Amino acid sequence: MSAHPDAGTQFARVADELRATTFRKDIVVREITSPAGLAPFSIALAADVRPDENGDSVYGTGRFVLLHDPEEPQAWGGAWRIVVFAQAPLEPEIGTDPLLADVTWSWLIDALDSRDAGYHSASGTSTKTISKGFGSLAAEGDGAQIELRSSWTPDEPFRPHVEAWAELVGMLAGLPPGSENIAVFGARKAGRD
């Protein structure tokens, strides 16, 4: 018998809450297979910004994973942990901005704070990449990309956390809050990763 017999029921309630979240129309969110072995319970979501008819996005993408371990791993500081990823291509000039990584992290914190999404033990990396094609890739030209990987221990309720993640994905892709159905300038084809 499990030391936490109601953990599955509690997780199912939270997973249903996340599945019922409504996102802006130009960010398509779907449930995907959770990474194995990270926690006894997990749910994973993927987001694509304004995907084409094939489901591909030239604007940006993201992943959201909610983990639950009733044993409360010491590194988490609680029974729940959120792990997120968000990525977007950029114009090369933007990619060289020395404050880009700091701004990206601040957008996540601002999105969480604006929704009163309580959390602690946050950590993460913001990575900017500049690339130049050669040989058969020379025609693609220069490129840049921003990527944020982060995790934190959330307080309930959990819906504000997934909403903040979706806002971050949109912000990285050039979609500030309230910009649905407005053209995005400077979108680059994601030719290289």
From TrEMBL:
Source domain of life: Bacteria
InterPro entries: DUF3000
Record protein name field: DUF3000 family protein
